[in-house]
Amino acid sequence: MTDMKIENRKINRSASENDKQHKKSFAIETEAFNSPDHTLARLNSSRQGLTTEDALERLNEYGRNEVAHEQAPPALIQLLQAFNNPFIYVLMALAAVSFVTDYWLPLRNGEETDLTGIIIIVTMVSLSGLLRFWQEFRTNKAAQALKSMVRTTATVLRRGPGNMGPAQEEIAIEELVPGDIIFLAAGDLVPADVRLLESRDLFVSQSILSGESLPVEKYDVLASVSGKGCDRLPEPNKDKSLLEMGNICLMGTNVTSGRAQAVVVATGNRTWFGSLAKSIVGTRTQTAFDRGVNSVSWLLIRFMLVMVPIVLLINGFSKGDWVEASLFALAVAVGLTPEMLPMIVSSNLAKGAIAMSRRKVIVKRLNAIQNFGAMDVLCTDKTGTLTQDNIILEHHLDVSGSESDRVLTLAWLNSSSQSGARNLMDRAVLRFGEGRIAPATKERFVKLDELPFDFVRRRVSVSVEDVRHGDKSLICKGAVEEMLMVATHLREGDRVVALDETRRDLLLAKTQDYNAQGFRVLLVATRKLDDSALTTPLCAADEQGLTVEGMLTFLDPPKESAGKAITALRDNGVAVKVLTGDNPVVTARICLEVGIDAHGILTGAQIEAMTDNELQREVETRSVFAKLTPLQKSRILKTLQKNGHTVGFLGDGINDAPALRDADVGISVDSAADIAKEASDIILLEKDLMVLEEGVIKGRETFGNIIKYLNMTASSNFGNVFSVLVASAFIPFLPMLAIHLLIQNLMYDLSQLSLPWDKMDKEFLRKPRKWDAKNIGRFM
Question: Where does the UniProt annotation place the signal sequence (predicted)?
Fold first, then answer.
């Protein structure tokens, strides 16, 4: 038993390299194939829950049920990071040398000291770093305030000391341990990776992990009688991903309806969510901005490494004073450097961030402004970003496919008469019915009884009485196949006809056609009830001999601004690609509605089988990728970067976090999961996606004004230094002192301080712009 206990408290993990992606095995995956009793035995637990002492012991062993989070660094660290810039390194190195040559050595020799150059350089560096620090510190504070206020307790079954029996109690989610028995109800977040023990009508939304907009059904072992459970039966879960397994729930998902009892299998970073969160915390990869700044910095350093020795040698040999030649060579090095560049960059980026904040956009990292403008590919999730993440009733049709008010009324009566927690489709029917269902209709019908939804029947029925005529009816709504099993007739206009095989096939074809378009379809049926047939309460036997009235179709629609935003981005040279965990059919429909070419959708399974070289070719020709895991999203994004693209990513789910972090510019929304907001560079506070186009334009304006300064200043400085160098070779004295070069540079730089407010040519803004060290070299 001791060996089993030790074995049960270890998390089994295996990692294998497959196209540079790591696959992990989690404890919850093993338990999906075990019976509840076997899982409880492995966890050394029971259906009566853990004792208080055992729970405390396990808390000490496993640690608190917390996942890794990327926290904003302390203010001091942020201040130091604000000076982490290659340009600043060059300037500080020159300032250090100037301190030795202009102050320390003259002071030792009793000569006059000169701190002018040092003061100028240090002032420029300080202003640049402090401006960047203040802007990023403020935006990080604003981002921190967006953290979701989520429920922080869970209901568990615990046994007290001695012979005290089990009792339910509320504890902090952080105190959950493997082996705890927990209770889930509608509205609850799943606080850990759990194996279901008992459930009733349980629907769980996994969109935050998978990207699928509709809730999925979850079953306990008792549901195996309908072929949907899992009691040592490998077939139902065979070849399924964790999210597709029916008898487990993962941390981060939430219960939309029903209730359940479950055992905690893994907590904290040992969960699927925790492992994902941990993987994205740490050092960020270099973005296009970082790479561009580095390339320009090395260009300036190479110029200095070439020019300074030439100046030193020419003046040393021609003047014979090597000390003076060294000082002049140092002045040339300083003169070649655009001292104001860090400040111009910071002020441009800060101005862009302030302009975006007026559009209710939080820019967490200033460099993201320029990356926004350089972006030539935007990858986006579907659910909650392109779509509203809100199921709506799209059609209410009779069996011929024509719009029917009768079907809408029946569906509304069915949904409004339910006393339990309503699912997303019931809520969609009620919203659609507001203002469409006459008050007289609402008063005319009175509910008699109801038969709730369950996973065996996959239907929900209510009985109502028409108080005007005294008629009693059963109104049933449910999944297509299950409804056809209990239907014998259908309504064609004013006639009720037998549901023969031909009519059944035609009706099935219609529903399948809507399914192929990405709709979720439910059928609505009725049956007349007389007093002798009416039983109280209703039972499944009453759901016989139904007449199909029509169908309802549901969809998570695109945001109103999605199509316009995608068109605007395309007009500005930004290709849009959809990366989603949702199924290809639903994804294709949404993409077509917003103007994205959905031809040749690549799925995660196909990508998994591709080599990196094959994927490099495919990502250039495909626009839509579906059924992706978080790592596959990240792989596609990195492949695009490898192909030379500057890539943005727009997402809001936990499954989007790796891609948000790896993108050159990660964009999320205020309703996103905390982990997504932490990984992003920019947070949109409003649903209007047209702000994306404004961000792109603002980024290009910012970059254009930076390049203006760099081109003008670098070429001007190079011209001055080259002129002085040539003159010094032919005259017996220095044409300009070091201090003269510094003051000249400073006066010229001060005149450039207005550049962040300069206007850009519209033609320049029409396509993405990137740092180009070679172009700057040619300009000089």
Answer: none
d(C-alpha 69, C-alpha 163), whole Å: 40
Phi, psi of 728 (to 5 degrees): -65, -20
Question: What is the pLDDT at residue 488?
Answer: 95
Q: Is 656 a catalytic residue?
A: no
Q: How far apart are CA 380 and CA 582, in angstroms?
A: 13
Largest CA distance in the chain: 123
Alpha carbon distance 318, 733 (integer Å): 9
The C-alpha atoms of residue 441 and residue 725 are separated, in whole angstroms, by 94
Smallest Cα–Cα separation from 488: which of 412, 532, 543, 530?
543
For the chain, list the domains and their CATH numbers.
2-63+152-188+193-266 (2.70.150.10), 84-127+286-353+697-779 (no CATH), 376-388+559-663 (3.40.50.1000), 392-555 (3.40.1110.10)
Long-range contacts of the stretch 439-447 (C-beta < 8 A, 24+): 441/409, 442/416, 443/467, 444/468, 445/413, 447/417
The angle at the Cα of 124, spanning 121 to 127, to the nearest 5 degrees, equals: 145
Q: Which H or E run includes 652? A: none
pTM for the model stands at 0.71
What are the φ/ψ torsions at residue 62 (nearest 5 degrees)? -90, -20
Q: Which of 772, 756, 773, 742 is nearest to 114 (CA)?
A: 742
Pick the catalytic residue from 188, 220, 381, 749. Answer: 381
- On the CB side of 361, CA atoms within 13 Å amount to 29
Amino acid occupying residue 31: E
* SS3 state at 663: coil
376-406 pLDDT, tens digit per residue, is 999 998 877 888 878 899 999 999 999 999 9
pLDDT digits over 43-67, tens only? 999 999 999 889 999 999 999 988 7
CA distance 349 to 366: 6
CB 314 within 8 A of CB 728: yes
Mean pLDDT, residues 591-614 taken together: 91
